[in-house]
Specification:
About 75% of the residues lie in helices and about 0% in strands. It contains 4 helices and no strands. It has helices at about 10-25, 25-55, 60-70, 70-85. Helix 1 packs across helix 2 (about 25-55). The protein is elongated, with a radius of gyration of 24 Å.
């Protein structure tokens, strides 16, 4: 394990201490559990997004793609709007 120092607001420290007491574990264990839960949620979200991309592969037929093409000027205008943000 590696030691990591973080700064918490008073309300966060109080909430962590209450949760730790209720669970009978140190504050550091509560923090580790929250980090693990956050990382697992991120991994699940990324896996879900990848699955959606994988399952949609080939969903458009060649004819659909031809109809969806934009002219160069429309594409340029679209990119300009995106980059302006």
């Amino acid at each position: 394990m590696q030691r990591t120092n973080i700064y918490l607001e008073d309300r966060q420290t109080t909430a962590l201490d209450e949760l730790a007491a209720a669970q009978g574990v140190p504050r550091s264990e509560v923090v580790r559990r929250f980090i693990d839960a956050g990382l697992a949620a991120r991994d699940a979200e990324q896996a879900h997004a990848l699955l959606a991309i994988t399952e949609s592969f080939g969903a458009l037929r060649d004819d659909d793609v031809k109809d969806a093409e934009r002219s160069l000027t429309e594409r340029d205008a679209h990119l300009q709007r995106l980059w302006a943000v």
